[in-house]
Specification:
Blueprint (H helix, E strand, L loop, with lengths): L3 H10 L24 E7 L6 H4 L8 E5 L2 E7 L3 E3 L2 E3 L5 E3 L5 H4 L2 E8 L9 H4 L11 H6 L16 E4 L5 E3 L9 E3 L6 H8 L11 H15 L5 H22 L17 H4 L2 H4 L3 H20 L5 E5 L13 H6 L6 H26 L14 E7 L11 E6 L10 E4 L23 E2 H11 L34 H5 L11
Helix pairs in contact: 1-11, 6-11, 7-8, 11-13
Length: 500
């Protein structure tokens, strides 16, 4: 039987084409029950990849139905292969040794999701915090404190791993009182630090609970001091709730079956600290996130966490372009084909080196029910805009995993309304004609359906779905007035074809 040390060494040291052998995982790390669901979100900046480079060809769309007042389309994913490379589209291309038909059968590519108002640069398209002036908890943090998703947390050391910039995640200031406001969740950029947080030596000596050490003082101050304001009382409650969560983490039993693991021999900071060369080296950007991927797989395998979100950090462009990426590439690619090619190539590097790396590693490890960790998961890749810079219109999502059979996979979905055509208000634009589609709110709610979170935990408002929205009043916006009432009315219904 393998040890935890062997497990992590295999993940860190093997080529991605040589997967870890799942039969070598400790048997007592598994239960015979249904595998818990897991969720991973990869979020990359900008987007702005033209449709025919990001998405599979329309020829595979063989089925049609009417939804939200317009015709939508579906087809099976078709994997092309040539010269040792496998491809669904120019961006969704990787080594044929890893991007296999079996792996693609566990993926979904969906296009045609919108936010019905102008957002510009934003983080809301990824996890559901759409409005800068009226924030909403993101789906990772909703699930982190949902009994429907977690239930028993006795093994869970970290409810949600937030990696990279952390800019996409917004959590509860006090999870015990979800009306007490929200707070940004900081990201972890050090893979070694992440490892040390979720795998720690077992303490033999019993300790007095952390909360017990301060509980008397807390009660005296909160309830015995008439001068304390309601706002300060709320701050105290949130502080004690954080102590309770710390105590729960310290008592968690996650990874007991794998408690002989040694620390990895290399961490991401061993790479990023050489900043003179790091930011112009896409191979190093990939290497950093592959180290993070290894820790995610280990955490999922030993059930120390079931949620991970990653937002690529500033200047991690997955490109060797030495100019001003933000202005020269991201802001110009809608009207400059050369700049667009630079952006497209960078996203292909991310897809192959980071996204496919993780899903192939998850698919190599057996889960509790005899499937794989990928089968029990949903791994999402999203971008902050669709094919036109600054426009959260016609956005694509790449998914892998079926959430334990709840998501239908192996398909390409197109939710655009082909009867509505428009372009950005700029005569130089090279982006192909765009169309409206379904709303991102509808997609995120459907994702939560698959992950087992009931809509009663989050759905509010006139139309339902996830998160908040508004109707755009600025007539200059590209999408102004182009969405129909039928599209709004469909927001609270599951996205067709997604659920199994």
């Amino acid at each position: 039987m393998t040890t935890r040390r062997r497990f992590l060494q295999t993940l860190a040291g093997a080529a991605i084409a040589t997967p870890f052998l799942p039969s070598l995982l400790p048997r007592n790390a598994w239960a015979a029950d249904e595998a818990p669901r897991r969720f991973v979100s990869f979020a990359t900046n900008h987007g702005a990849i033209w449709q025919n480079f990001m998405c599979p060809p329309d020829e595979v769309l063989t089925e049609r139905m009417t939804h939200a007042g317009h015709e939508i389309r579906r087809g099976d994913l078709v994997l092309g292969s040539s010269g040792g490379r496998a491809s669904l589209s120019p961006v969704l291309t990787a080594s044929a040794a890893v991007l296999t038909p079996a792996l693609v059968a566990k993926m979904t590519v969906a296009r045609g999701f919108d936010v019905p108002f102008y957002m510009g640069h934003n983080n809301g398209t990824h996890l559901g915090d759409f409005l800068d002036d009226d924030h909403h908890v993101t789906i990772d943090q909703l699930m982190a404190y949902s009994d429907a998703f977690y239930g028993d947390t006795s093994t869970i050391v970290e409810r949600a791993l937030t990696l990279g910039s952390g800019a996409t995640s917004l959590g509860y200031a006090n999870p015990a009182d979800k009306s007490a406001g929200l707070s940004a969740v900081p990201g972890e950029s050090d893979s070694m630090g992440l490892f040390r947080r979720i795998f720690r030596p077992t303490e033999e000596d019993p300790r007095r609970p952390v909360v017990d050490l301060v509980l008397d003082d807390y009660k005296s101050l909160r309830d015995g001091n008439r001068r304390i304001s309601a706002e300060d009382r709320q701050r105290l409650d949130a502080h004690v709730q954080r102590l309770y969560e710390l105590e729960r983490k310290l008592e968690a039993t996650g990874g007991i079956a794998c408690n002989d693991i040694d620390e990895p021999t290399k961490g991401s900071r061993d790479i990023t600290r050489h900043s003179d060369t790091y930011y112009l080296d896409p191979t190093k950007h990939v290497e950093v996130w592959q180290l993070m991927n290894d820790v995610i797989v280990a955490a999922f395998a030993c059930d120390t966490s079931r949620i991970a979100t990653m937002h690529t950090m500033y200047r991690q462009t997955f490109s060797s372009y030495a100019g001003d990426w933000h202005q020269d590439v991201a802001h110009e690619c809608y009207r400059n084909a050369e700049r667009h090619d630079t952006l497209m190539t960078a996203n292909q590097v991310f897809f192959e080196g980071v996204y496919v790396d993780l899903i192939s590693k998850l698919d190599a490890v057996r889960a509790e029910d005899g499937g794989t960790l990928l089968d029990a998961s949903v791994v999402q890749w999203s971008q902050e805009s669709g094919p036109s810079t600054h426009e959260a219109l016609e956005m694509p999502y790449v998914l892998a995993g079926s959430a334990g059979g709840r998501l239908r996979t192996g398909q390409y979905l197109d939710f655009r309304n082909l009867n509505v055509e428009f372009k950005r208000n700029n005569s130089e634009i090279l982006v192909p004609t765009m169309h409206t589609g379904l709303f991102a709110n509808q997609y995120l709610a459907t994702l939560l359906d698959a992950l087992g979170v009931p809509r009663s935990e989050y759905e509010t408002g006139e139309y339902g779905g996830y998160g908040k929205f508004k109707r755009e009043t600025a007539t200059w916006w590209t999408g102004y007035g182009k969405h129909t009432e039928a599209q709004f009315q469909a927001m609270g219904t599951p996205v067709p074809w997604m659920l199994a």
